[in-house]
Structures are given as structure tokens and as C-alpha cells.
Design goal:
The protein is of the alpha/beta class and 89 residues long. It has 3 helices and 3 strands. A 3-stranded parallel beta sheet has the order 1-2-3. Helix 1 links the parallel strand 1 and strand 2 (44-50). It is globular.
Length: 89
């Protein structure tokens, strides 16, 4: 089945490299992980974007933490289902 017609996706925590996460990916491991995800042929990756990473104050938002990863996923031709939620308060 080609990726274009594949209804299956993958929940990937590639970007959860926070101090509280004991199973974080190192930046140098992400290209290999993306290659392996690409080999699976999934059509999309679900990414949970953390509100606490993005919100910088009243009506101030910064997505730069995710920019490189989103660009690299897109280069593989994989779609992204991004969910904005969670708050580490």
C-alpha cells in the first residue's frame, strides 16, 4: 500500500525532550527515527504540541521548538496531525 492511500498513522513523541521525560530522543537520533517511520509507510504522524512550549504570554506564541522537526517530517512526505494541548503548570 502506498503512503498516499494508507489510512494508518503513528503517535510519535520525537519532540518530547524535556527534563521530566525519561525516554526522550536526542537530536542526533531523530533522523534515524524518521527513517524508520518512513520505512513503515504511515501516512501521518500525530504530534502533541505542548501549550507550555508554545505560549509565551498573553497572545504571544512561539512554535520554533517544533520548526525543525516539522520540516524534517514534511521532507519525508509524511503528513502531521498536530494537537495543541497539555500544560505543565
Amino acid at each position: 500500500m502506498d503512503r498516499k492511500n494508507n489510512p494508518f498513522g503513528l503517535l510519535a513523541f520525537l519532540h518530547w525532550n524535556h527534563d521530566w521525560n525519561k525516554f526522550a530522543f536526542k537530536n542526533e537520533d531523530i533522523p534515524r527515527a524518521l527513517d524508520q517511520i518512513d520505512e513503515l509507510g504511515v501516512s501521518f504522524i500525530r504530534m502533541d504540541l505542548l501549550w507550555s512550549d508554545i505560549h509565551n504570554g498573553h497572545f504571544q506564541y512561539d512554535y520554533s521548538r517544533y520548526d525543525s522537526l516539522i520540516e524534517n517530517i514534511s521532507k519525508k512526505g509524511i503528513n502531521i496531525l498536530a494537537l495543541l494541548h497539555y500544560n505543565k503548570a
